[in-house]
Amino acid sequence: MWFQTATFYEISIHAFYDSTGDGIGDIPGVTAKLDYLEWLGVDCLWLLPFYPSPMVDGGYDVSDLTGVREEFGTLDDVKELLTEIHARGMRAIADVIVNHTSDQHPWFQAARRPGSATRDWYVWSDASDRYADSRVIFIDTQDSNWEWDETAGAYYWHRFYAEQPDLNFDNPDVREAVKDVVRFWLDIGFDGLRLDAIPYLYEREGTISENLPETHAFIKELRAMVDAEYRDRIMLAEANQPPPDVVAYFGDGDECHMAYHFPVMPTLYMALKREDASDIVKALEATPAIPPNCQWGVFLRNHDELTLEMVTDEDRAYMYQEYAPDPAMKKNVGIRRRLMPLLGNDRSWFELLHGVLLSLPGSPFLYYGDEIGMGDNYLLNDRDGVRTPMQWSGNPGAGFSTADPSRFSVPLIADPAYEPGKVNVADQQASRSSLLNWVRSLLAVRRSLPVFGTGSFELVDLGDPAVLGYRRFDRQTDTLVVANFSSSPRSVELEHPMVDLWSGRLWNDAVELPGCEFAWLGMVP
Ligand code: GLC
């Protein structure tokens, strides 16, 4: 059950650290930075796809599901990284992308050939009007889920870029091949796998082709295999769906161990601007209970656009208005910006959101660079603007690479408010009051409070919509989290004296919260 109390940290390999001086981050580069990650206090690294890829979709278009991208290193480098991670008592998960492959994958190349015996590995059609109720996800670039293939003389089905044909899960050979991919990475030593785009495995006429019973049946099969053949490994669902549909990915505790809490994420941002926590409360109330052997993954940002697919039209319009004033900030149905720029570089907002994130039911997922408040560049292609090189120092190349920065695969942030000279790890490690040291302290306090991972959760109505309140408790511990989303001070009455678990300050009848502040309170010993 290690995943129930772990803090996860998401890493874009190409952008983390370049150990070879070619301008591209690599696997040994991650190994070289493990001391930093251990110092920061994260428990489990999530490595974004490092597989061979034509890079149409940031590596989520995979041309060899059991290979390593040459620029990133070798399979031995991956093994070495895992050995070093485990030696530190840390863990790592990887992505498995099995809904689709790259169109350059040998499976697709074989399937499209006329008369191919493996044609059926992908989803083909003579007409482009099948499964018409399925939405298009990448609306900025795709107008259909069907693409004509000249060689095959047929249309093929794709939920994402046209260069990412969907595998046909109705074919038992595909299902077995996918199980072997899962086995491959678990055999290498990963502690778990993030199942990318898992709602879309099957398609059926007259449905939206998401969350189908067949999909859940396959996930159960996969879980049974993982449980039978491995110990302590996890499956994490990437299912961007409304609450009842996300919860379905836990099954009865026999599907995924974890699933991202997509529904609550946008409400955290709405609450800030509205100075009202009601939307968070509503999202949490709408979230069904999950089996005891499962856990949410909670997050503020990741490598994708901040998705607004599942919010109401009104909330989406509000989010765009507040957080995407420049239309170029929009991407698909979401916003391609990083955390700190979204928050207008406001540290009190950053701290407030982390105080909530780290105490909500779930295990927190941090996105690389957000711990130092890195900026973004929404003018870059696709979502590259939130995948720029990690800013290790103010030196040329940001301490990321010794190569000439003009050779970097994604350019450094040049915005004066966020450029490496202004925002970097080295300076912030040296300054006690830095954002980085603040995040590190918060992670340390959280680590001492396993109740935030495994305890019960109960909303507490404090009679003020601006103040979010909830209890996290178990047999040993009782805590109260209060978060003031108003910009003005609030006072919260207490039923008994409580102590601030961070500062040690004692509050007798009430806790005084300045604007945009939170407190984690515990019983007086
Ligand atoms: C997931 C990934 C995203 C990718 C998509 C298609 O949503 O997070 O980056 O574009 O799957 O593979």
Rg, Å, rounded? 23 Å
In CATH, the architecture of the largest domain is: Alpha-Beta Barrel
CATH superfamily of the largest domain: Glycosidases
Q: Could you name the ranges where pLDDT drops below 50 across 5 or more consecutive residues?
A: none
What's the count of strands? 21
Number of domains: 3
Binned, the helix content reads 25-40%
Largest sheet report: 8 strands, parallel, barrel
Strand order of the largest sheet: 1-2-3-7-8-9-10-13
Counted by DSSP, the helix tally is 16
What portion of the residues fall into strands of 2 or more residues?
A: 15-25%
Q: Provide mean pLDDT, rounded.
A: 97
Overall geometry comes to globular
Q: What distance separates the N and C termini?
A: 28 Å
Q: What would CATH call the class of the largest domain?
A: Alpha Beta
- CATH topology tier name of the largest domain: TIM Barrel
3D architecture notes:
By secondary structure, the chain is α/β, with parallel strands linked by helices. It has helices spanning 13-16, 27-32, 34-40, 75-87, 106-112, 172-188, 213-229, 243-247, 265-274, 278-285, 313-323, 339-342, 347-357, 425-430, 435-447, 451-454, and strands spanning 8-11, 44-47, 91-96, 124-125, 146-149, 154-157, 192-195, 234-237, 258-260, 295-299, 306-307, 334-335, 363-367, 456-459, 467-473, 478-484, 490-493, 498-500, 506-507, 510-513, 518-523. It has three domains: 2-99 and 172-447, TIM Barrel; 106-157, Oligo-1,6-glucosidase, domain 2; 455-523, Golgi alpha-mannosidase II (Immunoglobulin-like), CATH 2.60.40.1180. Helices cover 27% and strands 16% of the residues. The chain has an eight-stranded parallel barrel with strand order 1-2-3-7-8-9-10-13. Strands 14-15-16-21-18-19 form a six-stranded antiparallel sheet. A three-stranded antiparallel sheet has the order 4-6-5, with no helix packed on it. Helix 9 packs antiparallel against helix 10 and helix 9 (265-274) packs across helix 11. The mean pLDDT is 97. It binds alpha-D-glucopyranose (GLC). Alpha-D-glucopyranose (GLC) binds next to loops.
